[in-house]
Amino acid sequence: MNRELENRLTHFVKNTHSIKSSFPWQEMMIKRLAALIFTMEGRDMNAPAVVKTHKLLKDETGIFSTFRGNLSVLIAAMASTADNPRARIMDTLHVYDLLKAEKFRFSDYLVAAAYEIASQAKEADYATIVHNTREIFLAMRANNRFLIDADDYIYAAMLALAGFDSATASDRVKHMYADLRADFPFTVSRSCLLHLAQIMVLSDRTNHCVPNLVHMNRVLRSHKVKLDRAMVLPSLGILSMLPVDPDSLANEIISVVNFLRTQKGFGAFSVMQAEANMMATALISTTHLAQSTTTTAITNMLIAQQTAMMTAIIVANSVAVSSAASASGGC
Fold first, then answer.
1. d(CA 201, CA 175)
2. What is the largest CA-CA distance in the chain?
3. Which long-range contacts (CB under 8 A, 24 or more apart) does 288-296 make?
């Protein structure tokens, strides 16, 4: 493990402990992701600022607002890094209203999509991007009616932000998905492959990338590193774009996970393997991208990584809630 990656790991662990005691009723997984995003941006965790922004978010929304759900701490954490956190929150709420007007369903995914648009677009472009988001979503759903759902809101927004029109975006996603289905193991779910296809199109890697993905997956599995799973499959796509030998990446993931397992709060009973792999790949890809000289590529890749993690965290929490409901007899 090189010194830069080791420093980033230490920084991540420190950031996690800094926010750990805040938000006692929130899932630790979300707080770890907040710490991870701070670390990926090279920032020290400012827990008081996150708490302050979280209070602002609650003050500006109703008691039953979706903004008080699973992502509230994460949205507050990201907004607290902005030059004007209040303006970022208000812009996000405004974009959310625009998305609702386009007949998107209320969900944590829509909250995440609203934040991404508010944080990356100019205010004058909000309405256009929101409309394009809806058009891209509908076009993708026309191609895969039984797979496209609320969890694709974020990717539709990211494709709109990247400047894709609905026809181009849906066509590229359709063909990338078909190529992935032809070459990936049948054990990988179709919805996961669709998200991977969206990530690859978002990163503008649609030519000859499937063989690289398949090879990367085969090498990682030979090292007993399994990224062809629901939470971490998009991370496999991001790793495949790095100019690094797959065997070296496998060894780095193993080293990072082993390091995290020795830290307080990161043991096997606290952090499931898929989440540990996701954190490892995020830190590794950020470290390699930081050494790149292509600013646009760095930005697009980091956004893709963040999008994948936000989607994964929502899915993980939804599964946890469903499991708890089932155990208690709920529906």
1. 10
2. 54
3. 288/242, 288/243, 288/244, 289/242, 290/4, 291/4
* Residue 103 backbone zone (phi > 0: left; psi -120 to 50: alpha; other: beta): left
Angle at which helix 190-202 crosses helix 295-327, to 10 degrees, equals 160
> 166-183 vs 126-143: helix axis angle to the nearest 10?
40
DSSP category for residue 105: P
**What is the token pair recorded at 270?**
């606290």
**Contact between residue 278 and residue 316 where contact means Cβ atoms under 8 Å apart:** no
CA distance linking residue 177 with residue 166, whole number of Å: 16
pTM above 0.85, yes or no: yes
Cα separations (Å) of 151 from 155, 247, 329?
8, 32, 26
Whose structure tokens read 């609702």? 100
What is the full per-residue pLDDT of the chain (331 aa) written as tens digits?
Answer: 789 999 999 999 999 999 999 998 888 888 999 999 899 889 999 999 999 999 999 999 998 899 988 789 999 999 999 999 999 999 999 999 999 999 999 988 999 999 999 999 999 999 999 999 999 999 999 999 889 999 899 999 999 999 999 999 999 999 999 999 888 866 678 888 998 899 888 877 666 688 888 889 999 999 999 988 877 888 888 888 888 899 999 999 999 999 999 999 999 999 999 889 989 998 998 888 776 644 455 556 666 666 767 776 676 655 443 443 344 344 3
DSSP string, 200-226: HHHTT--SSHHHHHHHHHHHHHHTT--
Residue matched to tokens 């405004």? 94
Tokens coding 293: 């000289």
Residue type, 207: N
Query: What CA–CA distances, in Å, run from 304 to 80, 157, 161, 257?
Result: 20, 12, 12, 22
Q: How far apart are CA 278 and CA 305, in angstroms?
A: 10
d(CA 310, CA 74): 9
